[in-house]
Amino acid sequence: xxxxxxxxxxxxxxxxxxxxxxxxxxxxxxxxxxxxxxxxxxxxxxxxxxxxxxxxxxxxxxxxxxxxxxxxxxxxxxxxxxxxxxxxxxxxxxxxxxxxxxxxxxxxxxxxxxxxxxxxxxxxxxxxxxxxxxxxxxxxxxxxxxxxxxxxxxxxxxxxxxxxxxxxxxxxxxxxxxxxxxxxxxxxxxxxxxxxxxxxxxxxxxxxxxxxxxxxxxxxxxxxxxxxxxxxxxxxxxxxxxxxxxxxxxxxxxxxxxxxxxxxxxxxxxxxxxxxxxxxxxxxxxxxxxxxxxxxxxxxxxxxxxxxxxxxxxxxxxxxxxxxxxxxxxxxxxxxxxxxxxxxxxxxxxxxxxxxxxxxxxxxxxxxxxxxxxxxxxxxxxxxxxxxxxxxxxxxxxxxxxxxxxxxxxxxxxxxxxxxxxxxxxxxxxxxxxxxxxxxxxxxxxxxxxxxxxxxxxxxxxxxxxxxxxxxxxxxxxxxxxxxxxxxxxxxxxxxxxxxxxxxxxxxxxxxxxxxxxxxxxxxxxxxxxxxxxxxxxxxxxxxxxxxxxxxxxxxxxxxxxxxxxxxxxxxxxxxxxxxxxxxxxxxxxxxxxxxx
Amino acid sequence: xxxxxxxxxxxxxxxxxxxxxxxxxxxxxxxxxxxxxxxxxxxxxxxxxxxxxxxxxxxxxxxxxxxxxxxxxxxxxxxxxxxxxxxxxxxxxxxxxxxxxxxxxxxxxxxxxxxxxxxxxxxxxxxxxxxxxxxxxxxxxxxxxxxxxxxxxxxxxxxxxxxxxxxxxxxxxxxxxxxxxxxxxxxxxxxxxxxxxxxxxxxxxxxxxxxxxxxxxxxxxxxxxxxxxxxxxxxxxxxxxxxxxxxxxxxxxxxxxxxxxxxxxxxxxxxxxxxxxxxxxxxxxxxxxxxxxxxxxxxxxxxxxxxxxxxxxxxxxxxxxxxxxxxxxxxxxxxxxxxxxxxxxxxxxxxxxxxxxxxxxxxxxxxxxxxxxxxxxxxxxxxxxxxxxxxxxxxxxxxxxxxxxxxxxxxx
Lengths: 597, 412
What we know:
The complex is a heterodimer.
Chain A: H1 2-23, H2 37-42, E1 48-49, H3 51-54, E2 56-63, H4 65-85, E3 91-96, E4 100-105, H5 116-119, E5 126-132, E6 137-142, H6 144-169, E7 175-179, E8 182-188, H7 195-203, E9 208-212, H8 218-225, E10 234-241, E11 247-255, H9 258-266, E12 278-286, E13 301-309, E14 314-315, E15 319-326, E16 333-339, H10 341-353, E17 359-363, E18 366-369, E19 380-384, H11 391-406, E20 414-422, H12 426-477, E21 481-482, H13 484-513, H14 518-550, H15 553-585
Parallel strand pairs in A: 1-21
Antiparallel strand pairs in A: 2-8, 2-20, 3-4, 4-6, 5-6, 7-8, 9-14, 9-17, 10-11, 11-13, 12-13, 15-16, 16-19, 17-18
Chain B: H1 24-48, E1 57-58, H2 60-63, E2 65-72, H3 78-87, E3 94-97, E4 109-114, H4 122-131, E5 134-135, E6 138-145, E7 151-156, H5 162-171, E8 176-182, E9 187-192, H6 195-207, E10 212-221, H7 223-251, H8 257-278, E11 281-282, H9 284-314, H10 320-330, H11 332-352, H12 355-396, H13 400-411
Parallel strand pairs in B: 1-11
Antiparallel strand pairs in B: 2-4, 2-10, 3-4, 5-6, 6-7, 7-9, 8-9
Helix pairs in contact in B: 1-8, 1-12, 3-6, 7-8, 7-9, 8-9, 8-12, 9-10, 9-12, 10-12, 11-12
């Protein structure tokens, strides 16, 4: 029995010391001067002040999964289209609804040619919904498993992408979570002046594609021939000779306004209709003098068109790194990137076969630049920025582009559905307001316990103080953030601990009234009250768990501290104060008749 | 009972037995009155009281909209702030002071709520849409404001330069931060300026530049997200109730479960009723308070039930009503002290704290009072009633099958 006494003393003492050590790093300035250095070196984890206390940004984005599904269906459709076009010419492809592709084949007798072989790798991705041999209409729908997979992927990829972007931005302790089809982002400590910028960075889709330019095709020559001389569109021939000595008659279409070019493309019909596997893109360029050099006034810009392969040869998913660098000649900021191994292989193949041609770098559907492929390139490339504005802004833009590229592209656009901005001063004010209320409440409880239950009340007060220490230490160990509702949860838990003590003490009093000795009254009191306390705490624990699973932000903070508090309560209010009672009653065998309760 | 050896400091004299169960009838009348009153108040708010118009004063978490704290440099009147915002075209503007009760700077600190989540109200969006229906030669094909209200998606039948769109929107009174072309289908993504900036501008237009010193908090919730939070909130309350009932049913007996659940439903309805009556803001935090009250009410009920179970075994010869009454009396001292201290702490928070904490404390104040009352006057009498009914039925149909069915019915 005496040994048990010592073991318990060592156990509670050890837990208390450990808890105190865990709390060491969390002690705020200027009170942390006395914390020995070894404590902060050994225990680095600490309680983070929540968003509402230190300020910051809380965002909830919904992922537009339908767009991701649409994009996938587009890719599948254009793939099948290309494969089918190698077998038959007379067909039409329409995208219908969110996830359907409709092929109309003329003559209908050719419909049989659209078989599993043509579908190739997409055989499992799409289901054939209907096939009408009379009209030659075949309808495909994206497989439901695929749809579910894309949804899942879009969310997961979305979270990782956002995490990457936020990390690059240098926010300390960001929290990025999935909740249903939403992504929840918490950025405590973010400065108000950065709120708008980080929102822009997070929302960028950042789809990087490399597409071959096909300005030397016969089709382009035909298009150029249709241009009315002296109109808004100018035709600039850019002939070149490849290493085999073949002459290419590249043609570039230019206009002062982007609109003129786009309108011109829209007017191309009949024989001049853009082929299915090609598309037009436009790039903003600095104006050139008649001799080809750029004009001095960089704000004078015009637009040029490129005929592009519709399918991207290489995409941003193979990107390994991106960095801010400076163009040696123009001294403008640019973004240098490196491809990963697989990307490098694709890039080598693409550039090796197409030396002398141009390759467009397309970011979010906009041509960033279309440099000529000088030689076979592997893993490295550069993106120049449309540097026609304020150089500081361009640099900022380049930096943001780097972080966006590094974190990869978003598989689906995000829409913001919830936002809370908290300035850095708010928390302090609120805490100052609530502080006195809490101090008065706590003191009242302490005095009440002392007066009403005397020595037993003193034990309960010690248990209560240690309970608070334990709860905070657990929070520190999990690096949890402490929000205002979290503090409310702690207060409630402390209230429940006091309640547990009252239940036990009232029970002990009853046993004493019934004439039991001090020791057996304490034993019976604790034993009988235990289940009452246990039941009360378990029901609250269940409420806490429900709150945690359904709640968002503030409610979760409340639920976490409540659950931690409940667990700590049972340890301190039941077991620890029991042990202290035993200390008070003295060793077993010595029968003490009175007890101060 | 007392042998005189122990002298306790006590408020309820040992052996005193107050009558509780015998007064159950008047308690039922009071409870019915409070519950019917609460529900009636919700309806009155929604349909009769013109100035309220909604069943509860939903916070922006639930209703969607924007809530912001604005600190002014000098003292301002509420009416001035409101009229400045209404002049600028914001709808559903609600302005209250915040800060510690009676603090020196309360005349400078305001909590502003408005229906808008975007600098673009639906009316302004429609007006802007009409104004940019034709930009140069291009006509507008699509105009969509994003859920979060920070972006507009536009499509024209012809291409335009971002500058032209920016200009057109600006002359339609819509300030933009950036316009970007998306692909080549003449689609454009317009990023709007932040609501905080725009509100500051509107306020300073009426109150002079530099009048706003700080916006320490801004929170905006899309209407869809708000509805989702309401649904989640109801789910959380119901989920907690079902779990608690199952637990009480398993730990005690299924005759106890309904009493505990009816008591806590009673408490949550009356607490919500108090929010309906005072028309205080009902936010996520308030919901957390309601869930805490559920926990507290059950806690209170369980303490009495636990004693009741013990006493039923002890006093087999007594009538159940008397045993229940005795159990309530035996635990009365604890009930008073626990509820009393909790009430004291939350009352202090209600009086001295501000904002979120104050609302939380108010809900707790109501909940503690109602919760204590319901444990004594609602939960326990229901156990008596159910047990007596079960006993009466047991005499007429003592089959196992009917007992099981009855238990199943109670468990649902």
